[in-house]
Each structure stands twice: as C-alpha cells, then as structure tokens.
Specification:
Elements lengths: L8 H12 L3 H14 L4 E7 L5 E6 L6 H6 L27 H7 L2 E7 L5 E8 L2 E9 L3 E7 L6 H5 L4 H18 L4 E6 L2 E5 L6 H9 L1 H5 L1 E7 L3 E8 L4 E2 L5 E5 L2 E3 L2 H10 L9 E2 L1 E7 L4 E2 L10 E2 L2 H17 L33 H7 L60 H8 L3 H13 L16 E6 L3 E6 L2 E6 H16 L7 E11 L2 H9 L1 H6 L3 E4 L4 E8 L7 H14 L6 H16 L9 H12 L14 E5 H7 L5
Parallel strand pairs: 1-7, 12-15
Antiparallel strand pairs: 1-2, 2-6, 3-4, 3-6, 4-5, 7-8, 9-10, 10-15, 11-14, 12-13, 16-17, 18-19, 19-20, 20-24, 21-23, 22-23
Helix pairs in contact: 1-4, 2-6, 6-7, 9-10, 14-18, 14-19, 17-18
C-alpha cells in the first residue's frame, strides 16, 4: 500500500494559510486591497487587541451578490483574471483568489455585502473553513467583513505571535502605505475604539502625507515629477534636513501597489548624493505608473516585491529627477527654535524715532531698507577672485587652483546651484533716458522679437546667498549676515566641500598628475590582504596610485598624484587600499574616485578651533558660493544654518 496520501481540503487550506496569513497585518492587507479593487472611496478598519480578537473592514465599493459571496471563499476563486494572458497585464492588487479561503481557514469570518443601494444584501458566516450560515440581510452598498479569533484553531501559530503593540505597529504601518498609495480613498483605522489614522481621501497626496507624518514633515516635502517613454514618476521627497534613522520613511508605489524594491531605494539615495548624513535616510513617497506588461507582480507570496523588464531605465529616471529637484532648492536649514504659542495677531513693538543724519536721496533710493553693503535678494552674483596674497594660506586654495565654473556647466552631469551675474543694476530713470532717442526703432524690434519663435529658457536656479562676514565663533563657526538674517557657517565643512569638488575633478584624470618617487613607500599587509590587493592593482592605477609587489606581503608605492595633501600621502593611500579591500563585489571606479576625493578633502581642510582672518573668511565664502553644491559637506552634514530676521526679532520680543 502506498505511503503518499492526498491531504484533506481543510488541512490543505490551513497549510496554505501559513503562506498568506502570517500575522494580523496580513489579514488587514488582503481585505483592504480587496476593498480597493472593488472601487471603494472610503475604507474603515477597526481592530481589537492588535487584530487577534477582531479585524473589521468596511467599504463602500461594488459589493457582491449572494452567489459570489459564497464562491469568493473557494480556493483560487477570483474575478480579476480569466486566462493566462491576464497574468501578464495585472492592474488589480489581488488576483490569486487565495486570501479569503486562507483567512477563513484559521478564523471565524462574517461577511455582510450588497451590490447596490436597494438595501438587500447577503450575510455569510464561515468558521475554520466550514460554512455556518448564509442568509439574506439588509445592508448598504459595499462589503463589511469581520474576522474574529484569528488562529483560534492553530494554537502553535497563536503562541508565536508578538505583543499587541508589535502587531498593531505592523497593521498601522501598512495602512500608512496604502493611504499614501491611494490618496483618493478616505482611510480610517481604529484600535480598541481609538482612532489612529484618518485621511481625507480628496486625492491630494501632500494632505495624505500630512495626515500620516504630520504637518511639519509635509511642509518640508518637495514635489517631484518626471517621465520617459515607459515610466511616469511623481510624488514628494523631503529636504535633506529632514531625515530618519532607517528606510521606514520611504514608500515606493508601482501602479497603485506598495512594494519594497531595494534598487529603487538606492536610486533615490543616489539622487541625494552627499546631501544626507551617514546612516540617515529621507522621507519620500514615489508613485510610478507604467504599462502592466513591463512588470511581474507574481513573484512574491505577499506581492510586496516585483520585477521590472526595464529596471535600469527606471532607476536612472528616479536618480535624475531627485537630483534635479534638489538642485533647484536653496538647501540652507533654518535654526530650530523653541516652540512657542503664537497669538492670533502679531504685536509689533513700537520703534523709537532717534535722530540720525539723513542719507543722500540717491543712496536711499538705490539701497532702500537694506543693510549697508548688502545686495538685493533678487540679484545674481558671481564669486569674485581671491584677493592678492590669499593664496599663500595653506587652506585658501587647493593645489591647482579653484575649480572653474562656467554658466552652462556642460558635461558636468550635476545641476548648477547658482546663476551668473547679470551685470550692474541700471536705474529706471537712466534706462528710460538711454532708450528715449531710439524709442520707435526699439518698439519695432521688440515687436519683431515677440513675433519670432522663442526658445524655452530653463528657470533660473536659486543662488547661494551673498554673505557678509562678521567674525568667528570659538574658532569653528563663521558668523555672517545679509538682508535675510544671520548665518552660521561650519568652516571645516565649508572648506571640505570646496576641496571635495576640487579633488573629485582631479581624480577624473589622475594618471597625468602621477609622479614617481625617488624613495618608494613600503606598505605591509596580511597574506590574505596581499593576495586580494594583487588582483585590484589596476583599479588603484586608475586612481593614479601605482603599487608593485615587494616580496611576501609587502608592496612598494612607486607613484601617486602630486596634488595629494602634503604630509598625508601615505595615510591616504592606506585608507584607499583599506576601502578597496573591503569591497566584496566588483569595484566601481566612480565610487573609488569619490571615496578618494572625500579622504583628500577631509585631510586638506581647515580644522575646528583654528582662528582665521577676515580676508580668509571672505575668500572661503566666495569659493563656497562657487561650488556646485554649497549646502552640505561630502558626508552630508549641513554647512550653513540660518536665523531669519523674524526669528531674531521674536527672540528679543520685538515681535510678540
């Protein structure tokens, strides 16, 4: 007699339930996704004791008629696919027909549903996979499913459930994701009668973000949009000053389906390149729309992972749009002030009229109410060349001169963060006098120019503010001002950014700058490190560092670029080799170039607690303004923090 038996259907359902129903959040996921597929505009979720006692999902979707209500609890019963071809063009969140029978096999389920507004519906009760009742009942349009005593007939599964707070956290997190994926649906989540989540469902993604993360986060979000022939990307990303300790604040949505996709998250982080501190992650909600034939969603039991047919194209789109969106912003964080309750009306302290000499009328009309020596906010300016004698300072300028910047910045591949100077301002009166003799000709030329086709000009990017140094604080921070308020600049971070961009350009072609040493440097390693290093010598040569074996586990440094920071050459080469040996996969030359530039910039920069003169401060600020990204150091730490004039007046109670 054979030993292999066909399992009873009830046992088979309980085994299959282990794949679909891992915990209460799995039940919530499947039921809410069914409600979304039914076209619901409002979904209410109520749970008790973390979902182990009760999970109730109520929607106003299309509902089911009595026959479908019972058929839906059969295994592999679905209305969403009918043929093999449908598997390659899935537009719904569910399609397998496994969720309801799997849930019913390990719980007590009651379903009340109606397909229209007539008030006539169906009540269906199933416990542990066995049908208990099917009757007519009055019900509004939609479906109301209650799942009670989850895992009541599988005590082993119930034994290994986590605490109520842990299970509640998983449920809440997934409702968050669905609310962000479908801002047009009003979601409500209640636990033991207390409302935890409530969204408006008006289709505004930013309002959904505010409902989930709070208004402070929503105010720091930046819209992002992009499109290729195959993909359309939109959503919101946070400014670099708003970060989290993990990737939990990143939500990726594909065709309305929340997924976890590591390459897409990496593309997002690459777009923030050097703008985030180490081990910090942004808040982002990315929506991607594509043809369903370009994606395979049938690769994961919970459908949380997908496969793209054109993944590199999507990753490039995400990285490019994130970088361009951030590049259009002035990323200077405001100093956080203690929260204070603001009255309904602002009370401004009366100013005393003190006698002071009147400035000439021309000067007043030109300067307005600005501080002496400051420029108007709308002016664009170019960083002046360093004053004579400043290059003698060891930190004022890296070897080889400051990085050159052109207005177009062709070929850099990085967004430019400041615009070129438009030249000296012209008084309106002088402009009219200059144009008066040729008024008729100028009008004709203007008319012809208006009729001619115009090329669309890209919007001007925000300029780094023109700062006027006041002094130095504790030998570490530069204090500066302009018409917008007060600014604190971390001198080490600022100089590090300047040096990083300088060395990054230098490492683009380091072989030409390599010089042979009269006395080679000797480096020693372990036997395993030496064997691994021998295979990666070509990568070091592309960074301008030439090594050759010297017997045993020793190597000789024969040449390195002459512009490496003086006195730090051996330490830098050892750090580069240490990083190179730590890479387990194929070494990315671009990444090695970046790491080497970061190492050099840190070694060559001015340190904290180091006093510098006013002329050196001005040179540092001018060269910082000429950087492609003057807002963060290569490690992602902010360089500049601002105090607005309004905040300063509040501190001194000039504005109440």
């Amino acid at each position: 007699m054979g030993k292999i038996n066909i399992l009873d259907e009830h046992i088979a359902n309980q085994i299959a339930a282990g794949e679909v129903v891992e915990r209460p959040s799995s039940v919530v996921k499947e039921l809410v996704e069914n409600a979304i597929d039914a076209g619901s505009t409002r979904i209410d979720v109520a749970i008790e004791e973390g979902g182990l006692e009760l999970i109730r999902v109520t929607d106003n979707g299309s509902g089911m008629d009595p026959d479908d209500c019972e058929t839906a609890f059969f295994r592999h019963a679905t209305s969403k696919i009918a043929s093999t071809q449908d598997l390659f063009a899935i537009r719904t969140l569910g399609f397998r027909g496994e969720a309801l029978p799997s849930i019913a096999a390990v719980s007590k389920v009651e379903c009340l549903t109606a397909p229209d507004t007539s008030g006539l519906g169906c009540r269906f009760v199933i416990e542990g996979g066995t049908v208990r009742a099917k009757t007519e009942a009055t019900a509004p349009r939609g479906t109301d499913i209650a799942v009670r005593e989850l895992f009541y007939n599988t005590p082993a599964r119930l034994k290994y459930m986590k605490t109520i707070q842990t299970e509640l956290g998983h449920v809440t997190d997934y409702i968050y994701r669905l609310a962000l994926a479908h801002p047009g649906i009003a979601f409500t989540l209640k636990h033991n009668g207390h409302t935890l989540v409530q969204t408006l469902g008006n289709g505004d993604l930013l309002q959904a973000i505010a409902a989930i993360y709070g208004t402070t986060v929503a105010k720091s979000m930046l819209p992002i949009r992009g499109e290729t022939l195959d993909y359309r990307l939109d959503g919101y990303i946070a400014k670099p000053e708003l970060t989290r300790a993990n990737r939990g604040g990143i939500s990726t949505v594909i065709n309305g389906r929340y997924i976890r996709n590591y390459p897409m998250v990496q593309a997002l982080l690459q777009g923030y390149h050097t703008l985030l501190p180490i081990n910090r992650f942004p808040v982002a909600v990315l929506h991607v729309q594509m043809d369903p034939t370009l994606i395979d969603v049938n690769v994961h039991p919970a459908k949380l992972e997908v496969r793209f047919s054109k993944e590199p194209e999507l990753m490039q789109l995400v990285e490019r749009e994130v970088r361009e969106t951030l590049g259009k912003q002035r990323l200077i964080p405001a100093a956080s002030m203690p929260a204070a309750k603001r009255p309904q009306e602002a009370v401004v302290q009366e100013q005393l009229e003190l006698y002071r000499p009147q400035a000439p009328q021309a000067q007043v009309s030109a300067a307005g109410s600005r501080l002496p020596g400051t420029a108007a906010p709308a002016e664009r300016w170019s960083a002046p060349a360093p004053a004579a004698g400043t290059s003698a300072s060891p930190w004022a300028q890296p070897p080889g001169g400051a990085p050159q910047r052109s207005g177009g910045a062709a070929g850099t591949g990085e967004p430019q963060l400041r615009a070129a100077s438009a030249g000296p301002a012209v008084q309106p009166g002088a402009e009219r006098e200059r144009l008066a003799p040729r008024e008729t000709a100028a009008a004709s030329e203007a008319l012809l120019r208006a009729m001619a086709p115009q090329e669309e000009q890209p919007p001007a990017l925000p300029a780094f503010p023109k700062l006027h140094p006041i002094g130095q604080l504790h030998g570490t921070y530069i204090v500066a001002q302009n018409e917008e308020g007060l600014f604190l600049i971390d001198q080490h971070a600022a100089h590090e950014r300047i040096n990083y961009e300088h060395y990054y350009d230098k490492f683009g072609n380091p072989a030409e700058a390599s010089q042979e040493l009269l006395v080679p440097l000797t480096l020693e390693f372990t036997a395993i490190e030496a064997e691994k290093l021998a295979d990666r010598l070509p990568q070091l040569e592309q960074a301008g560092v030439y090594l050759e074996p010297f017997g045993g586990a020793s190597f000789l440094v024969r040449a390195y670029p002459h512009w490496l920071p003086a006195g730090e050459e051996q330490a830098l080469i050892e750090e580069m080799i240490e990083w190179l040996l730590g890479e387990k996969k194929q070494v990315d030359i671009g990444k090695l170039r970046e790491k080497a530039a970061i190492m050099c910039s840190c070694k060559a920069s001015i340190k904290a607690n180091q006093s510098i003169g006013l002329l050196e401060i001005e040179t540092l600020l001018d060269r910082l303004a000429a950087c492609r990204n003057p807002y963060t150091c290569p490690h992602g730490r902010p360089i500049v923090v601002s105090f607005s004039t309004y905040e300063l007046e509040k501190m001194f109670k000039r504005v109440m």
